Amino acid sequence: MLLDALTRDMRKTIIAGNWKMNKTPAEATALLEELKPLVADAKSEVVACVPFVDLGIAIEAARDTNIKIGAQNCHWEESGAYTGEISAAMLKDIGVDYVVIGHSERRQYFGETDETVNKRVKAALAAGLKVIVCVGELLWERECNITNEVIARQIKLDLWDVTPEEMKNIVIAYEPVWAIGTGKTATAEQAEEVCDFIRMCLKTLYGLEVASAVTIQYGGSMNDQNAAELLAKTNVDGGLIGGASLVAEKFAAIVKAADASTTY
Ligand code: 13P
Fold it and tell me: Is residue 251 part of a domain?
């Protein structure tokens, strides 16, 4: 283990749902209404990252609750001729707290590169958003034994020019691509090994103090059954949840497991 186990309590535990392209505004309201009482006493930070068209209604539904609302992407320019895009300033203006950047589905299907991820991260930070930066290896990269190289490269490029001060608003989500939507979860040991390695990369870039304070989530088929084991690990400080975040009781059960994993 790279860092003292005591450092676990220096970090905020964050459970974020990534709803992906699911839930109409009416369905989003219903899900949030169901979720609200179930997570009202949570010690962990609870976030719902919803489709763009759901943001307004989700912010209303979550007003005066402990649920924070996030978007799933943003563009790097503040405004301009970028048909179909949404700027970080627009998100901030309507009351969004978080934005997911660099999800593997965006890298895989929409040509997202580490360079564009970095530009989006910088823009989101400049607009005052908290950013969940996603990294993770493909199955064949793991099989070729280059997981660490892939992760180190993503961390370095995606966070290029991000200052130590800005790191306070960065969350890293480790999402092995082979575990997303496949029902194939990384073992708790695999998740811990890579999350620990990510922290080591952050320590190299920013020093021990900054690295110890960054929340590192695991994502990839995390659910109400496996969350406790994953979240018990020292460097797994939360989860980015896809499928299970669409069912209020399952998501709430993950939040409970997260609460149980922290001592603050
Ligand atoms: P699943 O939990 O559906 O595997 O999705 C994980 C994910 O991609 C979260 O961003």
Answer: no
